[in-house]
Design a protein that fits this description.
By secondary structure, the chain is α+β, with helices and mostly antiparallel strands. It is built from three helices and nine strands, in the order E-E-E-E-E-E-H-E-E-E-H-H. A hairpin with a 5-residue loop joins strand 1 and strand 2. The N and C termini lie far apart (56 Å).
Amino acid sequence: MEPKFCHRCGNALVKRVVDDGHTRPVCSACGHIFYLNPPIAAGVIVEREDGKIVLVLRGENPGKGLWCLPAGFMEIDETLEQAAQRECREETGLIVTTDDLVGVWSYFHREKGTAGVLVVYTAHIVGGELKPGSDSVDVRFFAPEEIPEEQLAFWTHRAALARWRSNAYRTAIRARVTPTP
């Protein structure tokens, strides 16, 4: 949603081509330029000791009725790691600690006409009870070979899971956390 009024002086904003060649909202009175920046989302791949990961069945659009990683948009008063942990707790009931960065993906949402950034971490469970959140229909653990690829809501989640599954990634992570004799 684009702003309609200047947060500095309260006057109406107009669309204008600015020095960088982009059409942006500009205050008609004070000339302040508004930059519409993409939102940042954070998510987690929560792996249990048995190798299964948690997925959430979405109850809202986009992707209603499809599976996804626990993920959502970062709030202004939290870090990426805190956002990933909060979203996991809200969507799954699980309390997690983030571990390693899996990757960062940028995306363009055609239906909304907006871009965004998704950052995904691995995480481990430190508490809570598995239960769907208010915007989730179901939450379950899946073995890697059970993950319903064709029923995943977002390509970025498929990409994160592909990287997580790759032997090179998992071997590197395990080598870092496995103590040497």
